[in-house]
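Worked example 3 (structure in, sequence out).
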């Protein structure tokens, strides 16, 4: 299996509860390496741009407001089959449906405050990584 990259966000509900390390531990224990990381406060432009694909969804404005409500940690993760691996470690979007031991089952408060985001394809991983990181910020 190929070593690939994916993009992750530790969301405001998790940073607020001081769970940055706990979430990152699950990623690392699951076989992913954090090769870039920064704690940022998302602007409205960033949140709207990042989630632009969801613009027509009824939850869009709440989602944007939530993502701006506190610091987030954006990360580039590397590992074998990184996109799927990360999604397995995160669990289902809705914590009510997430498997035992996953980030969202362990930590998420709701479908919106669900502690972590992960790219859903290699193509989107590249787009999302490029949205938040310059090449020289990815240090391996
Ligand atoms: P994420 O993987 O970051 O991608 C889009 C986000 O929208 C998703 O996680 C959820 O946190 C959020 N969201 C809020 N409400 C819903 C909903 N009803 N269905 C799907 N996603 C939702």
């Amino acid at each position: 299996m190929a070593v690939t990259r994916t993009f992750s966000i530790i969301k405001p509900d998790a940073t607020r509860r001081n769970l940055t390390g706990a979430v990152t531990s699950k990623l690392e224990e699951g076989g992913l390496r954090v090769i870039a990381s920064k704690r940022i406060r998302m602007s409205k432009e960033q949140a709207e741009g990042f989630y632009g694909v969801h613009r027509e969804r009824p939850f869009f404005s709440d989602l944007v407001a939530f993502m701006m409500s506190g610091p987030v940690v954006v990360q580039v993760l590397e590992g074998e089959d990184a996109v799927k691996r990360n999604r397995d470690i995160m669990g289902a979007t809705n914590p009510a449906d997430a498997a035992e031991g996953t980030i969202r089952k362990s930590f998420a408060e709701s479908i919106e405050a669900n502690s972590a985001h992960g790219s859903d394809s290699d193509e989107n991983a590249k787009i999302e990584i490029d949205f938040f990181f310059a090449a020289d910020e990815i240090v391996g």
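Notes: The CA atoms of residues 47 and 99 lie 28 Å apart. Residues 122-132 form the longest helix (11 residues).
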